[in-house]
Write a structure and sequence with these properties.
With 325 residues, the protein is of the alpha/beta class. It is 37% helix and 14% strand.
């Protein structure tokens, strides 16, 4: 059995989570195309059957909490087998615009509503979804500390923070987990927040390990994005950047083919072997998708294979990932 199959400790808690986690944003149907409840419920069940015990959702995953409600419906009978993480501090307004609000009263109300939707009395991990520029980080931290002390959250985390914000929050409420974007081509956290987390015993649970599906290796060079696919706005899916990324994936495919694994499994496996990374959030809206990425826990890349990947990453060079402002 691969040692990547073994549950990993979340921070300094007694909570253990699967290295591959199911990211439950796609099943909310906000930006993902062709989403339906039948497939979403099957995906959630398939994840547990594939060895995934860690489920990541949020108050704002869906205009009315669709993601949390689906988790309760599909997995309520298996609740005690799971570690559920949700987030507060972000919601959608009446115009379906994403709104950040990290005032203590909002954090507490959203936590209570999330627990009701999830049909549970606690979550293993409650994140602040993102810093709110209108609210002092320490003030938000105090509210999350109260929720943890009340037993509504067994631990607390933050997402999309910088080092200064991490330190300010941590001084008021101990941080168990940090959730940033990270993948082979987006490694900024290695310079600042990741070392901070290692130093303070904070688990790092990354999103975008497959870079919005780019690193899954399933999009052909001549792929045409439909108008309702939001990925087309990102530079990494356009022009010369797109071609460079496809060249990079061709190298990854040679390595994955040599070991009888998919490109997505190779990428997730690499991610899980990086120092300080506890778990990788893998989004899915179909059962076969999470079954594939969960397979990344079944093997370990050799030092020689890791070296080939590192060389390919260096040769790929600097990646443009964000749309121009």
């Amino acid at each position: 059995m691969s040692n990547l199959c073994k549950p990993r400790q979340l921070g300094a808690t007694d909570i253990h989570v699967s290295p591959v986690a199911l990211g439950c944003w796609p099943i909310a149907g906000m930006t993902s195309i062709d989403v339906n409840d039948t497939d979403s419920l099957a995906t959630l069940e398939a994840a547990v059957d594939a060895g995934v015990t860690f489920f990541d959702t949020a108050y704002g995953y869906g205009a009315k909490g669709e993601s949390e409600r689906l988790i309760a419906k599909a997995l309520g009978h298996r609740r005690n087998e799971l570690a559920i993480a949700t987030k507060c501090g972000m919601h959608w307004n009446d115009q379906l615009e994403r709104t950040f609000d990290a005032r203590p009263e909002i954090i507490k109300r959203q936590c209570d509503e999330s627990l009701q939707r999830l049909k549970t009395d606690r979550v293993e991990l409650l994140y602040l979804h993102a810093p709110d520029p209108k609210v002092d980080v320490a003030e938000s931290a105090g509210a999350l500390k109260e929720l943890m002390d009340a037993g509504k959250a067994r631990s607390v985390g933050v997402s999309n923070f910088n080092v200064e914000q991490l330190a300010t929050f941590h001084a008021v409420c101990p941080i168990t987990a940090f959730q940033p974007p990270y993948n082979m081509l987006q490694r900024d956290i290695e310079q600042d927040t990741l070392p901070w987390c290692r130093e303070h015993g904070v688990s790092v649970v990354v999103y975008w390990p497959l870079m919005k599906g780019l690193l899954a290796g399933k999009l052909s060079r001549d792929h045409i994005f439909p108008p309702n696919d939001g990925r087309a706005k990102y530079p990494m899916f356009q022009g010369q950047e797109w071609q460079k990324n496809q060249d990079f994936i061709d190298v990854l495919r040679e390595i994955s083919d040599s070991i009888g694994r998919s490109v997505a499994q190779l990428v997730i496996n690499w991610t899980l072997q990086q120092s300080g990374i506890t778990s990788a959030l893998c989004g899915a809206k179909r059962a076969y998708q999470i079954e594939e990425t969960a397979g990344a826990m079944e093997f370990v890349l050799s030092p020689e294979q890791l070296q080939k990947i590192d060389i390919a990453i260096q040769e790929r060079g600097v990646v443009i990932t964000r749309p121009a402002v």
